[in-house]
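@channel anyone free to eyeball this complex?
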Amino acid sequence: MTDLQQTRTASDEAPGDAPAPPDSTRRRRLGRRDESPAGRYGAGFLAKLALMAVANAFGVYVLWSAWLAESWIILGAMLVMLAVANWVYFSRRTVPLKYVLPGLIFLFTFQIFTIGYTGWVAFTNYGDGHNSTKDDAVAALLIQNERRVEGSPALPLTVVADGEELGFAVVQPDGTATVGDAEAPLSAVDATVAEGRITAVDGWEVLDRAEVLARQGEVTDLRVPVSDDPGAGSVRTQDARTGYVYESTLVYDEAADTMTDTTTGTVYTPNDEGQFEAADGSTLNVGWRVFVGFDNFTTAFSDSRYSGPFLQVVVWTFVFAFASVATTFLLGMFLATVFNTPMRGRKIYRTLLILPYAIPGFVAPLLWSGLLNRSFGFVNQVLLGGAAVPWLTDPWLAKLSIIGVNLWLGFPYMFLICTGALQSLPTDVLEAAKIDGAGRLRTWRSVVMPLLLVSTTPLLISSFAFNFNNFALIYMLTGGGPRFEDASVPLGHTDIMITMVYSVAGLDGNAPKDFGLASALSIVIFVIIATISAIAFKRTRSLEEIN
Amino acid sequence: MTATSTAPAVRTPSTPTRRRTAGRWFSELGWRHVVGVLFVVYAAFPIVYVLSASVAESGTLTGSNQLFDSFSTENYARLADTVYWSWFANSVLIAVATSIGTVLMGAAAAYAFSRFRFTGRRVGLTTLLILQMFPQMLAFVAIFLLLISLGEVVPALGLNSRVALICVYLGGALGVNTFLMYGFFNTIPRELDEAAKIDGATHAQTYWTIILRLVTPILAVVALLSIIATFGEFVIARVLLQSEANWTLAVGLYSWVSSLLEANWGLFAAGAVISTIPILVLFLFLQKYIVGGLTAGSVKG
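replying in thread with the prediction:
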């Protein structure tokens, strides 16, 4: 009911019926596009117009590039965004949206979409060997398997360039001059032909011997398609003077959807895993993305190669996140209580104690990895007098070190929030406790502690979620190591789920890329965090009700 | 740090005699100093160590163990021969741009949610609350793949682009900060808006000239938290930025430590000290705001 009334108020706020404000105030709000058009063309409106012009220009540029690159999804998304933006900023009925839209666009593109995309990739076999669509895979296979056609004529060839782009100018056996590059197939052109070889051609610059030598690698790698049909082969050259037609040893039969190897006669048919497979089970090396259903999820938890290490990683993730929150909170709360009494130098103590929090998150783990170095580190050499404790290389000690380093990193935050919460405790409750004769400890246990927990629980939950995904700490301190000895996957004793996702995705090049499995694991983390947060927030609400 | 008046109520001794013996002083306050000194040493020794390592002559990990044994600025001078200052510039640029964008977009959204009543408002707020739980970095595989496709259309938004990284960070802006701001916006009395409206101000005028001025503290907090978070962000920067010149400090310093730890320790220490300075300065000078912001999120009840 109130919402209805409020809606009316909001739409009444459309500025058409408001008298124009004096010029001096109008000038001050230059530079944003929230101004509503009302037939007045003040500085605000002009600023909005300018910003919208820039936005539209960018949008049209993206539309055009997307059209050229044939990225239909980006084209469609951009079209929708552009239409919405123009509608929102030039309509009078969309006042709230004018404020929310910029953030919303970024939120949709880079957060909501990516979450959805993660979900989609999790059900595919996207990764090395399955990088693109089937059409791309067919084209790649045809190109990779090209061989020189036996007995084909030698074609007099000239290397030409259009800016940076290299091309071949070729005289065909029938005497026509043709030119083409990696993208555009050979086509007939007007050219000067001398001694059976092209010496000049419109729109292209002929490279001389020295220039060709300088770019030898590029020249021998270049393949210029004979025609639009990828099966028709291409012209290539070894010596930059004679070209030969190369044709693929594979032939793709579009109607039957099969690949045939012309040298052996083997017929490959597409299988469910997105590869061409022969009758004897051998496959061609380039495949394409297909939906694999829940395969990625079942691989993670039932495949014997993965499930053992994965289970250990999951358990350690929970232990690590829980221990991190518990240790940092206890220490932070203890220190906050200690310094909650007026005393000399309190401000200095407080400032010095939060120093670790003011260090950028990446410096601390790197610094500690040096401090804890087995042979040269400060801790072993100086504090322990030359001991060789394997802080970061022994499975158990590495785990302990990680929790210890995280305690150093994390207690100032807890100290800060506990200090804040203690200071905002209601005085009357504390006084009431005193009047009722409660001692220090009793007051602490029955009054201060519950109130403190109520106000900090939401932050403890976010802290748990943060540590659950504390990638930088683990990755920088131990890199997930020491490695599991028995596992075929590149995982280690201190890997948590998010670093496992990183390893499995293969983005650092240490393992084959498997985006599908990595995304499936991300989804598992999503679900775990969502569940924990939901339960925890429910518990918090009941806590508040009790109080 | 202002509302300290509540604390003495608990701690003041209930005995009427005000005699303060040494033992009594210790049980009341003295032990607090002991605890304080102990933990200040714990908190500060790695920082003292890195300072000493950065001015150590030898520049190796072993050579850094004698605290302030030698003094030379050679490590700092050597930074100029590396890509370090590009990384520094990248980090600062990306953090500041992200922070400005975050504040502008977050404040605008918070204003809308706080002042207007529209269909989808409740759903929007709930969605933001839920989104807050999912850190953006979880989807880094998808972000990587998305930027591959985007880069084919608009190279400036593809992999290895700093602009693209800023855009990705801005994607997380609304989810993380709008709620913090929303709570603060709600504490500004609506009567002010109404008075402005009666005086003939448009919604945009109310926003830019009245509301934004009153919420400056929370804007400062969000800007600071955003700078600190972006400056320290590692995963997404590492996945997206590929060429060395485009790296941020986090990615660059990691590459130093992971590849040539023992020999180049002095270089790392010097780099670490310099990269700590901007954040440390912000932090110490604006501590009050940060503490206020953190607890504003927590003590909402």
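from a first look: The longest helix of chain A spans residues 304-338.
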